[in-house]
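#onboarding

Welcome to the new folks! Below is a worked example of what a typical request in this channel looks like: someone posts a single protein sequence, and someone else replies with the predicted structure as tokens. Don't worry about understanding the tokens yet, we'll cover that in week two.

Example request:
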Amino acid sequence: MNATILIIDDDVKLSQLLVEFLGDFGFKVLTAARPEDGLKKLKQEPPDLIILDVMLPGMSGFEVCRTIRQSSAIPIIMLTARGMVTDKIVGLELGADDYLPKPFEPRELVARIQSVLRRTHGIDETQAKKFGRLEIDFPKRIAKLDGAIVDLTTNEFAALALLVKNSGKVLSRDRILEELRGLEYDAFNRSVDITMSRLRHKLRDDPKNPSFIKTVWGTGYVFIEGEDHDEE
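Example response:
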């Protein structure tokens, strides 16, 4: 897979090990030990994916993630030595696409990278589609609401695309998690609800009277093509 990975982590030894390991899988790897250097490299040579450590000198990984998301939807996998659920939630709410606690097996990181890149580039629709006020340009990976571009993360767009491709069909949380993540999250599956909540907020979709995404309680979610439906 000819993809460029940017690692922002002050653990130089770990970064070097990952450069060699990921290189064996065909990835080009750039590294930065300081947040400001990572943000500079991001502008100079935009990567296909970013591996971002939470514990960084001077600026936390959460702050770096927030800064990146202000101008870019490049996929982000966050690394941390802390395994608290609250850290996972914060990372996902800020727009991270995946989350892997340290220590980890390098092969698992590769699997996560491949999964994120697949869903980033795996949409095969060849044209834009319109659903009432919502327009989705699949080739450009852009969503517009009332003609204005909606600032979606990679994962949010992937979630929207998944629902649209299965329009009218209820998708369980497990199915959505499997499609978007590729791997289980240790019993942490609130990521699906967090993603849907963020997506609804950006689409200005009222959960109590949805126009696009309807919750089927106890089951999952369904795309309703811009029609007016009440919650079940």
